[in-house]
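Hey,
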Amino acid sequence: MLVGRLFVGTGLGLGPPVAALYVTEVSPAFVRGTYGAFIQIATCFGLLGALFIGIPVKEISGWWRVCFWVSNIPAALLALAMFFCAESPHWLFKVGT
């Protein structure tokens, strides 16, 4: 359980800054700040969604399993959507393309 919390905490700590860095590299300058703000808003809505999922299932025995499997849905969608993301200019420069 503690190792799982470590992974989740690390993901929540590293995810938004890495996503913001990617967005600033691939978005045009005139919308960069807006897209960066959307990442922070999406993180807050994700935490709020986790709270609203956790409240009704807290009376169920093994409630954390329900929360775990529900959280896998957006994670799987994100993993699939990553195949369609553009390469960042920094990475393209690094590999010499």
